[in-house]
Design a protein that fits this description.
Strand order of the largest sheet: 3-4-7-8
CATH architecture of the largest domain: Orthogonal Bundle
Bound molecules: nickel (II) ion
Helix content: 40-55%
CATH class of the largest domain: Mainly Alpha
Number of strands: 9
Number of helices: 23
Strand content: 5-15%
CATH superfamily of the largest domain: Hypothetical protein af1432
Largest sheet: 4 strands, mixed
Radius of gyration: 24 Å
Structural class: alpha+beta
Shape: globular
Distance between the termini: 70 Å
């Protein structure tokens, strides 16, 4: 067995459309990439159902994870020899960057919503449990897997290391914004990462940005803001996600009722029973999920059959704006009318809400999700970004929420049955 801490005899490179090349120089990183838990990420898309809207968005979590690793590697190269940077943390940072999303499952959002699973908990189990990833990490030393898990969970004692992987300007976000922009083909999402990397400086407890790089950071924040509303929360993508969640909800319900599936969904049984083992979880991927959707199109249950056909053939739900304050009165009536029209509102009338906070500063007493961005002023003082930047101040702390109501327009327009009720429903939805 090779010494896990040694450098590779020859550097390995992966061609990458976003960062051009991804450089691997360490035996440890090379072996982690080769584990089956990491390779599984090739079969999980980075952006879930976004490919239904932007057909290029087929890139995987494998791509993204390598990208986050590469950005972290470049930052560390820049930090080398600077005060506060301890090069003994180098491999730990690289491992945490590479593995930060290793627990993601197929269509994470929908699965987590319907089955209450949690990718962060699975990440932890993959790193600490009986896996190939754990076996590789443990060769560094026995406490190393726990350290990697601590960095990802933000509990590691060296906060500088944590902030590299998880802050409002970390390697994770810098990779996914550029990568998702590239694969969707949109023109937002671009910013000058090279510039940002050059002005990053290590301090005792976090990464800071030299003030001269402030405008590049403003650009980055704006690109994130735009990506959320133009790509991540695109209403058509959400429509596909609504259908996907309803398929899972329907199969779970049928299973509970003792429905006899023509083709038993054995890969889902432990999920339905809420006792999924790590091995069961690792067997799930998007290929398996899509396989079941394909064969469920021939099931006897008309709802399951219809929803699967919609997902696979992209016959998505239509949507209208839904303001909870204004339209909540219509809600019980709409549900009643759907029932009268023989369209089950549990599966065919869905309110979906999305919300995003483009940038936030730390407010004492409130749970902050990720560390705010700090600038290093020429006099050596450190200041939070929104106090220096008018552009960032304007959008700081402003949470935007969007509610939409999803429904099958084609069923409502089919006037072969329940003509009057369907007209009434359409009148309400169109007003
Ligand atoms: Ni990530």
């Amino acid at each position: 067995m090779e010494n896990i801490l040694q450098k590779l005899e020859e550097e390995k490179v992966f061609k990458d459309p976003v960062h051009r090349y991804i450089h691997v120089r360490d035996q440890l990183i090379w072996e982690l990439i080769g584990t089956k838990e990491f390779q599984r990420l090739r079969r999980i898309r980075q952006l879930g159902t976004t490919f239904m809207t932007f057909h290029g968005a087929e890139h995987s979590r494998f791509n993204h994870s390598l990208g986050v690793y590469e950005i972290t590697r470049r930052i560390i190269d820049i930090f080398q020899g600077r005060p506060h940077w301890d090069d003994k943390e180098r491999l730990l940072c690289l491992c945490a960057a590479l593995l930060h999303d290793v627990g993601h499952g197929p269509f994470s959002h929908s699965f987590e919503k319907v089955f209450g699973s949690d990718h962060e908990e699975w990440t932890r189990q993959i790193i600490l449990g009986n896996t190939e990833v754990n076996a590789v990490l443990a060769r560094v030393d026995k406490s190393f897997p726990q350290k990697v898990a601590d960095v990802i969970e933000k509990t590691y004692s060296n906060k500088l290391v944590v902030s590299l992987i998880s802050s409002q300007i970390d390697a994770d976000r810098m990779d996914y914004l550029q990568r998702d922009a590239y694969y969707t083909g949109v023109s937002y999402g671009h910013f000058d990462m090279e510039r940002i990397l050059r002005v990053m400086r290590p301090t005792e407890d976090q990464v800071v940005i030299k003030q001269s790089g402030m405008h590049a950071v403003e650009d980055y924040i704006m690109s994130r803001y735009q990506m959320y509303w133009q790509v991540y929360f695109h209403p058509v993508t959400r429509s596909a996600e609504v259908i996907l969640s309803k398929i899972l909800q329907r199969t779970k319900e049928l299973y509970k009722q003792g429905y006899q599936f023509k083709h038993e969904p054995i890969h889902f049984y432990s999920l339905f029973n809420e006792k999924m083992s790590l091995d069961d979880y690792l067997r799930l991927d998007e290929a398996i999920t899509m396989y079941y959707f394909q064969i469920w199109q021939e099931e006897d249950d008309s709802i399951l059959r219809d929803l699967c056909g919609r997902f696979l053939n992209r016959r998505l739900f239509q949507y209208v704006e839904f303001n909870p304050n204004q339209h909540m009165n219509d809600w019980p009536m709409l549900q009643q009318l759907f029932k009268e029209a023989d369209i089950d509102p549990t599966y065919y009338l869905v309110i979906d809400s999305s919300s995003d906070l483009p940038y936030d500063f730390y407010r004492p007493g409130e749970e902050e999700e990720r560390l705010p961005i700090h600038l290093l002023l020429p006099n050596g003082k450190i200041r939070e970004l929104s106090r220096e930047s008018d552009v960032v101040e304007a959008i700081s702390g402003k949470k935007r929420t969007d509610h939409k109501l999803y429904f099958p327009q084609d069923l409502l327009e089919d006037e072969t049955s329940h003509k009057e009720v369907k007209r009434k429903i359409r009148d309400i939805l169109e007003k």
